[in-house]
Design brief:
Elements lengths: L2 H14 L3 H18 L33
């Protein structure tokens, strides 16, 4: 059995589930995994190709904030 077929089998099983306690347990497991186990690992430097142009006045103050900069 591959992972995709196991996922489909689990989805079918959960859809047929009528026990509220079991459903609550599945929901708490999902929340736990969402907060701890599924964090994406960052790959530093992977976005270098995303910025192709930066204006010459990029670091200049914006006119709309002049009153706050005095």
């Amino acid at each position: 059995m591959n992972v995709d077929s196991i996922k489909v089998e689990l989805i079918d099983w959960i859809a047929k589930l009528n026990d509220n306690a079991a459903i609550e347990r599945i929901i708490s497991l999902k929340k736990e995994l969402t907060h701890t186990g599924l964090k994406k690992t960052r790959i530093y430097g992977s976005g270098k190709h995303l910025i192709s142009f930066i204006a010459d006045d990029f670091n200049e103050p914006l006119d709309i904030f002049k009153e706050y900069q005095q």
